[in-house]
Q: What sequence folds into this?
């Protein structure tokens, strides 16, 4: 029995003793090649322990965008106990996916096991991505909003980065853009100037999104004596980087002049006020102050973003669409509070 791929799994927790006050995502496991089974919520949750699962195509068709569970009792991801996800009473709601979810209580330490039930033979076969756990039930609107959280990395790093002059002063888990059109060297140091960091593997194409690479520290060209990890994203005209496991003592990191930098956006958008394209939204964000910023999001998202809706009401809502109205004229609705933007030219 093949089950559908999961775009979004929203697990909602029923609050038993009304004393809980948290009101936001407690955990955010993208379950993809970039983050593997790590939590990126910032709450410091333990990584999931994967057993008998493989990376597979995600909901957007990209390789490495989800995990595949084979439908046997030994194919699962288990999230170790953490106080933030006390699992006594969970239930799950999702129209798009059926899957089995269990929390096995082992004395006080409760783990969550995805896709296989520990004590009987039920199991889930299919793909799963983007696990979010909340400590309250979400409204439909909140569910729609949070469906972008795992793909947020597609856009946000290119907008919300910290410019940095001296990359040796970088910290873990912050997106940086190197000043002065620099990029991290993929070659390793030319001369023997002590341990110097370099990135193993090429810079990615923009369409690929963020990728994780080894950040090697070695004193000879090409050697990788000590390793950290760097996630790199190609944006328009620059790269952004995020580090994990940087050495405490600030080692050097080699940089090169970025020679391939693109400077021009590839598309120019024309506004069609009072219309919105329905049914093709793949990303939505509120509190986006201007249509220009929404267009920037669309450019950053790459080819997948074919047009966008922007409404200035409610502090600004930006919706990226995976189609243009030209193929779907009947989905273009008149609406006073929205404007539809579509590309008119390739530059
Ligand atoms: C980065 O994280 C590692 C642990 O993963 C830690 O040992 C190191 O001190 C951190 N580096 C910086 C610069 O904060
Ligand atoms: C476009 O997005 C809609 C709504 O999210 C989805 O149902 C549809 O499958 C997507 N189409 C493509 C070609 O990705
Ligand atoms: C609009 O922004 C203000 C200030 O940041 C915030 O308090 C308010 O909740 C926002 N409104 C909506 C609808 O998001
Ligand atoms: C126009 O958009 C607003 C905001 O999204 C929505 O509340 C309203 O129902 C829409 N109106 C029509 C006629 O679709």
A:
């Amino acid at each position: 029995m093949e089950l559908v791929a999961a775009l979004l799994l929203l697990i909602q927790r029923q609050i038993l003793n009304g004393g809980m006050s948290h009101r936001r995502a407690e955990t955010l496991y993208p379950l993809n090649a970039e983050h593997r089974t790590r939590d990126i919520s910032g709450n410091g949750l333990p990584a999931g322990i994967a057993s008998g699962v493989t990376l597979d195509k995600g909901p957007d068709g990209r390789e490495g965008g989800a995990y595949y569970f084979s439908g046997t009792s030994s194919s699962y991801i288990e999230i170790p106990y953490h106080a933030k996800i006390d699992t006594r009473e969970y239930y799950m709601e999702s129209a798009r996916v059926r899957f089995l979810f269990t929390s096995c209580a082992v004395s006080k330490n409760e783990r969550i096991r995805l896709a296989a039930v520990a004590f009987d033979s039920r199991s889930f076969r299919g793909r799963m991505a983007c696990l979010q756990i909340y400590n309250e039930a979400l409204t439909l609107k909140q569910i729609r909003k949070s469906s972008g959280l795992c793909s947020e990395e597609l856009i946000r790093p290119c907008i919300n980065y910290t410019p940095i002059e001296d990359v040796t002063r970088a910290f873990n888990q912050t997106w940086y853009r190197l000043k002065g059109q620099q990029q991290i060297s993929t070659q390793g140091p030319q001369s023997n100037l002590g341990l110097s960091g370099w990135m193993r593997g090429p810079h990615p194409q923009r369409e690929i999104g963020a990728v994780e690479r080894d950040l090697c520290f070695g004193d000879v060209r090409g050697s990788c004596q000590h390793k950290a990890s760097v996630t790199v994203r190609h944006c328009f005209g620059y790269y952004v980087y995020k580090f994990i496991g940087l050495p405490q003592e600030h080692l050097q990191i080699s940089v090169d002049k970025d020679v391939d930098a693109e400077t021009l956006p590839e598309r120019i958008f024309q506004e069609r006020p009072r219309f919105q394209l329905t049914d093709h939204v793949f990303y939505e964000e509120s509190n986006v102050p201007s249509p220009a910023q929404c267009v920037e999001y669309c450019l950053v998202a790459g080819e997948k973003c074919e047009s966008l809706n922007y409404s200035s009401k409610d502090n600004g809502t930006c919706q990226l669409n995976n189609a243009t109205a030209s193929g779907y004229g009947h989905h273009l609705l008149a609406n006073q509070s929205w404007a539809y933007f579509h590309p008119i030219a390739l530059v």
